[in-house]
Amino acid sequence: MADDRDQSGGVGRGLPSGEPTGGSGAESGFLPPLTLEIDRPDIRYTRLSGIIADHVMPRLMVLHTQAAPSAAPRSAEIAELASLVLGPRHEAAADYMLGLRDGGVTLDDLHAELLEPTARRLGELWEEDRIDFVDVTLGMARLQRLVHAFEGLGGIAAYDEKRRVLLACAPGEQHSFGSSIVQKFLRAAGWHVWTCATQRMEEAAEIAAQEWFGVVGFSVNSDIHRGQLADAIARVRAVSVNRKVGIMLGGSAITRNPQWVEELGADGTAANGPATVILAKKLLAESLAASAP
């Protein structure tokens, strides 16, 4: 069959089947030529792509923007979860977390933007004497169960025995009241807590080289020992029995300079005792996962 497409625009011209060729018009009895608008496939594709780009995609983007969940939980969600973990039903907090997850909030955001801030909020309520130590301990236990559920810690053998943390001050500093509060909350949460007896920079590394710890924490209150602290952290990582040990920082200097966490080679920071418990559990989970064969 002859190709009826022309060479210029993809439009062919044809005659009705069975009609004689010749002149046109009513006088001769011939029908006029029939023009068929037949686009080549590449032209149809180009036109369709243009319609999608100009009309369909902008509408989809608007709908997606309107329907997308918030990037991370807000203060209202933090207050709600704090209320639930202090309430009479321990399942309520888990149901709330699942609802946020199903709504599109990622597990990383749930942990970093909800669990840790909620633990910090419990500590603030305790410091304000709005709840007592029994209340905050109960709330922390429920938050820890949520960490277990969302980190999959229930399937890790001997997890409880590995809740071992070494707490030290930054080189040249003394233990502070804040450090003793952190120890209190960690012990209430079932952690085995070691502390350094001296202020020598090498002591934390020496202990970590002899005993297995899931987490090592440094309290930092002065800005003048930043370089020594970086050396101490690097030394702990180099000699630790646990090659994937988590390093957390706390203290007033970190509150003033939160960027130090990354700059000094640590893994996280927490503002108070309850938040430290949640952070320590997260770092331990990451350590055990990284060490798994």
Plain-language structure description:
With about 290 residues, this protein is an alpha/beta fold. The chain folds into two domains: about 70-150, Orthogonal Bundle (Methyltransferase, Methionine Synthase (B12-binding Domains), Chain A, domain 1); about 160-293, Rossmann fold (3-Layer(aba) Sandwich). It is about 50% helix and about 10% strand. It has helices spanning about 40-65, 75-85, 90-100, 105-125, 135-150, 175-190, 205-210, 225-240, 250-255, 260-265, 275-290; strands at about 10-15, 35, 165-170, 190-195, 215-220, 245-250, 270. The chain has a five-stranded parallel β-sheet, with helices on both faces. Helix 2 (about 75-85) crosses helix 4 (about 105-125) and helix 5 runs parallel beside helix 11 (about 275-290).
Keywords:
about 290 residues, alpha/beta, Methyltransferase, Methionine Synthase (B12-binding Domains), Chain A, domain 1, Rossmann fold, 2 domains, two-stranded antiparallel ribbon, 11 helices, globular
